[in-house]
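Thread: DUF2200 domain-containing protein, structure

OP (GT): Posting the sequence first so everyone is looking at the same thing. Length is 120 residues per the record. Can we get the structure tokens written out before standup tomorrow? I want them in the notebook alongside the other entries.
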Amino acid sequence: MKTTPEHDERMAKMTFASVYPHYITKVESKGRTKEELHQVIEWLTGFNDEKINELAESDVTFETFFSEANLNKNSHLIKGTICGYRIEEITNPLTQKVRYLDKLVDELANGRKMEKILRD
């Protein structure tokens, strides 16, 4: 499934702060912790707890969020579908990165073991 330019633009302009509380709610409702969420975000982006909290309290867009990130060298191993899109087929690099994060959060919430989520 190919993303549209409008979809890609919406992903770029969405703020991290607008989805971060939903990530927390999702993982905590499934028995996982905020600390585990931060571990997953740090693996993908290189952001530590302090930076994640700072970004969660600002109006930084995903475009800026990922331009500041140091994407994990193994992020290309994140595969599968999320929100109806096959991650490895997404052609827009930013949209793909946002979906990487969504997929990792989903895997965490679904009880996948941390060593499997952190594809090292």
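GT: Both are above now. Quick notes for whoever picks this up: The mean pLDDT is 95. The CA atoms of residues 107 and 113 lie 8 Å apart.
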